[in-house]
Automatic annotation (TrEMBL), chain A:
The protein's name in its UniProt record: ABC transporter permease subunit
Sequence intervals crossing the membrane: 55-75, 95-117, 149-175, 195-217, 224-245, 280-299
Species assigned in the record: Agromyces kandeliae
Record flagged with keyword Membrane: yes
Keywords per UniProt: Membrane, Transmembrane, Transmembrane helix
From TrEMBL, chain B:
Superkingdom, taxonomy of origin: Bacteria
Gene3D superfamilies cross-referenced by the UniProt entry: Lipoprotein localisation LolA/LolB/LppX
Region Disordered: start-end pairs: 356-379
Species, as recorded: Agromyces kandeliae
Name of the protein described by the UniProt record: DUF2092 domain-containing protein
InterPro entries, per the entry: Sporulation_related
Length: 305, 436
């Protein structure tokens, strides 16, 4: 970013702002900025994980596999083909607790937490009146937006891993652990099973990136974080309802939620990484469009708080 | 604010460009390959040449993804039957496993995405359901049907005591005998027709009922393909046309679709969305059932050599007695011809078949009870339920109830006869009334 542009960024804050009269940034400071972006990312990530709210959300996600495991432990195994996918396998193999929990969490609970984090990204700062101070620091609006998005992406990964790790631990504690039965009917050793479980966690984290970009746009549109969060969560549900209506089949391939459940391809023999790639491409398109819109909105809006 | 206007507007230009440019780039990325698909021009072939080309194709290894879509206008049988069964008994897995044939039929007529692997005598069909999978593995001497939803693996094998080699030898002997007989029947100096001649004759016969033509060349699964179009010459049938896509390089069938008369979209279509003719990794054919799966064994009922000879003798005796036109054997009556063929089963035959089915069901239930500790399984559904099911599927017409799909009709008359054919229900009703 050139110094002229940097002054333009600051200028966008409005004439009344004290920072507007800052002189052009000298080259030495510019060199520092790369470090500045990394340190901004680090401090934003730390802020996220210092919040009670973040830990409460992760804890509630972790509660899903715990509830599933305890219920199966007390009530006994369920018959094949009933309840959520993989539920019938939990009693025989504790490694399936995390997988069942992911299937349960993906439609609503996971998007809800993602909506909270991404919807809060900009609107939260605006509502606290801290956004302009963030922009006074020589970071630039686009960089701030990128860092905020990266932090939301970190949360996506943390959320998916929480479900998997807690699920695996509680499954290990309550049930026998053994070779993992694949959908194709064969078995793989425990180690490979754990690797596939991690790959599924990565798949689910990637699945949520499109929704995060939508939350980021919503967050730049308002100064009321709850509004952005609610709009994002509602969109996640609406996308899945549209995805369930056969008459709207032509629109399905474009929905960000279209491939949320295709991680089953990683549990086949041979495993297919094609759906992982397709899903990543789909999410990348949503990130490009909604990230672009968010960038446009954030760069041109007057920051008043 | 006004002196600083230049700043924000320049900034805007830099952000508006990506905000608009990125979607445009994505749209181009989608549209350009579609344009590239538009024109395919393979060397022209007549329908006869195309059929011979397809027949001569020697594809013995491939792997690919198949998409099958079927809109026959039938209600979803799976939900109707599954709903009744799940409440009824706990031993669903048993009931489902014993219904392997039904599963295979639903594979043939349902909608699904699947991977197909083929390498000489090994084959595998991997049906990709959401969070579930059905597999059919075929290899010499055995076959597996694996269903992850019910956690069962069914092994279809030849019974241990079956005399496979003796049977093969007997079949070879019969084939040699038939050829010798045919050659003896020919005038001197003439030989048996070549495969090409046989094909020509078959095409000639086909031509009486069906217009065979070559459609426009297209791309299927990224490969240039010919299109063979079959159109019935009669208006009486429900079938409008059948289209088969044939690979322009090796003659393999890549796609097929059946369209009902007057419909815009095919009622049934299946085809590759992705295909490779390289031999797949042998590991995809290996199947070792997991401990978590219930493994069932089903022996294929192969006849012994003596039984086979007996059958042939019976068949010949029947053919001779038919020549006397005194045959009182239960067999379907055929009305019409070609595409408009209607098959009629009279009341006695229908009653016999249902009785036989019921007896067979009872036998298998007894066998289950004998060699397992589980309580004797109930038949999949009671008679009352079956009648309800029939009532839900069919609509009342003159003289009975009819099942109408976009490609086929079945009429159950009140006096117990069954008519079926690829014709409108009215035609079936007309046959039923005329035959009374």
């Amino acid at each position: 970013m050139s110094s002229a542009e940097a002054s333009a960024t600051v200028g966008a804050l409005g004439a009344g702002d004290a920072a507007a009269s800052e002189p052009p940034v000298p080259p030495a400071v510019r060199r520092l900025r790369r470090g500045g972006m990394a340190s901004l990312f680090a401090s934003e990530t730390a802020t996220l994980f210092r919040r009670w709210r973040t830990w409460a959300m992760l804890a509630s996600l972790g509660l899903i596999p715990i509830l599933i495991a305890i219920a199966i432990r007390i009530a006994g195994p369920s018959g094949p083909g009933r309840g959520p996918a993989f539920l019938d396998q939990v009693a025989g193999n504790g490694l399936f607790v995390g997988m069942t929990a992911l299937v349960v969490a993906t439609p609503l609970f996971l998007p809800l937490t993602i909506a909270v984090v991404s919807g809060d990204a900009i609107a939260g700062e605006a509502s606290h009146g801290t956004l302009r101070y963030l922009l006074i620091a020589p970071a630039g609006r686009l960089r701030l937006l990128a860092v905020k998005y990266a932090v939301a992406a970190v949360f996506c990964l943390a959320a998916a891993l929480t479900v998997i790790v807690v699920g695996t631990l509680i499954g290990w504690a309550l049930f026998p652990i053994g070779p993992v039965t694949l959908l194709s009917g064969g078995q793989i050793p425990v180690g490979e099973g754990l690797l596939r479980l991690l790959a599924i966690g990565a798949y689910v984290a990637v699945s949520m990136l499109g929704l995060s970009a939508i939350g980021l746009l919503a967050s730049t549109l308002t100064v009321v974080p709850v509004g952005a969060m609610a709009a994002t969560a509602i969109l996640a549900v609406v996308a899945q309802i549209v995805g369930a209506i056969p008459q709207l089949e032509w629109v399905h391939p474009f929905l960000f939620s279209d491939r949320w459940f295709d991680f089953d391809d990683l549990l086949r023999s041979p495993p297919s990484w094609e759906s992982f790639g397709d899903n990543a491409l789909l999410q990348a398109a949503w990130i490009a469009v909604f990230g672009g819109l968010a960038a446009w909105r954030f760069a041109t809006r007057d920051i008043l708080s | 604010m006004s002196p600083r206007r230049t700043g924000p507007s320049r900034f805007r230009a830099r952000t508006v460009v990506p905000a608009i440019g990125v979607p445009v780039a994505i749209a181009l990325a989608i549209l350009v390959p579609m344009q590239a698909n538009a024109s395919v021009d393979l060397p022209d072939k007549t329908p006869e040449e195309l059929v011979a080309f397809a027949k001569a194709g020697d594809v013995d290894a491939l792997s690919g993804t198949i998409e099958q879509r079927s809109e026959l206008g039938l209600p979803d049988l799976g939900t109707l039957m599954g709903g009744g069964a799940s409440g009824a008994n706990d031993s669903e897995a048993d009931a489902a496993a014993s219904d392997t044939l039904g599963e295979l039929v639903s594979l043939a007529t349902g909608s699904f995405d699947a991977n197909v692997y083929l390498d000489s005598d090994h084959a595998r069909l991997q049906v990709l359901d959401r969070m579930a999978e059905r597999n059919v593995y075929l290899s010499p001497g055995e076959a597996w049907f694996v269903d992850s939803e019910t956690q069962t693996a069914t092994r279809l094998g030849v019974a241990d005591d079956a005399d496979v080699e003796g049977l093969e030898a007997e079949l070879d002997r019969l084939a040699d005998e038939a050829r010798a007989e045919a050659e003896a029947g020919l005038p001197d100096g003439e030989q048996l027709p070549t495969p090409q001649q046989l094909l020509d004759r078959a095409l000639d016969r086909l031509d009486e009922t069906t217009a065979v033509s070559v459609g426009t060349d297209g791309r299927v699964a990224g490969r240039d393909a010919y299109e063979l179009v079959l159109e019935p010459r009669t208006d009486e049938t429900l079938v409008g046309e059948i289209r088969v896509a044939i690979d322009g390089e090796n003659g393999a069938a890549l796609a097929a679709s059946v369209t009902a008369r007057g419909a815009d979209a095919p009622a049934f279509e299946t085809g590759f969305t992705d295909v490779s003719f390289a031999a797949p990794d042998p590991a995809v054919f290996a199947f070792e059932p997991s401990d978590a799966f219930a493994v069932e064994e089903e022996a294929l009922p192969l006849p012994t050599v003596d039984e086979l000879r007996q059958w042939i003798a019976d068949a010949q005796a029947r053919a001779e007695s038919e020549a006397d036109a005194t045959a009182d054997l239960p067999r379907p009556i055929v009305h019409g011809q070609g595409w408009a063929t209607v098959v009629e089963l009279d009341a006695a035959t229908v009653a016999e078949m249902t009785a036989g089915h019921r007896a067979g069901g009872g036998d298998s239930a007894d066998a289950d009870g004998a060699d397992s500790v589980a309580p004797a399984t109930e038949p999949p559904f009671a008679e009352g339920e079956a009648l309800d099911l029939l009532g839900a599927l069919t609509t009342p017409v003159d003289g009975g109830r009819a099942l109408q799909t976009s490609l086929m009709s079945v009429l159950f008359t009140d006096d117990g006869r069954v008519f079926a054919g690829s014709v409108p229900v009215d035609a079936l009703v007309a046959y039923a009334e005329s035959g009374r």
